[in-house]
Amino acid sequence: MVLEQTAARFDNCRIDPRALIRLRKNCRLQFGRHVTIGAYTVITIWPEDISGHVPTAALEVGDYTYIGELNNIRVAGVTRIGNKCLISQGVSIIGSNHSFDPGIPIIDQLSRTDKVGVTIEDDVWIGANSTVLPGVTIGSGSIVASGSVVTRDIPSNVIVAGVPARVLKDRK
User: Which of 1, 30, 115, 126 would be a feasible disulfide site paired with 144, CB 3.0-4.6 Å?
Assistant: First the structure.
């Protein structure tokens, strides 16, 4: 099935006309109030056929969340971005990943089933050029430093940095 570009309007949201939102059939997109999506951000909501039934995927973005320019959000399963989050520029949020079984070309591999979707709780700041990988939860009030790669869950109210991202200090 071909991806369909969404031309929908969302109440009280600012979506730059140069942003691209691609939503496949059987998928869901929900923006809270006063969400901002910057120029050249690409949001793709594409389900993974991992269980043999009709696949679905969903992106839920909370109220007053800012998603800056040049971001890449790839949704499989359910990805949630909370209220009052700040997603800087050049951030990738990846909802699934390919398997890598030997003897099968990577492009022909099905997606992994053990890590799907991303959860970003309320009041999170993700710095420029960071990457958030599938299956991760970032706790409320946390900050991800620029250029970090988040490979595992991050607790609430901490500052993380690095590749892979590690806790530097508490925000309490």
Answer: 126
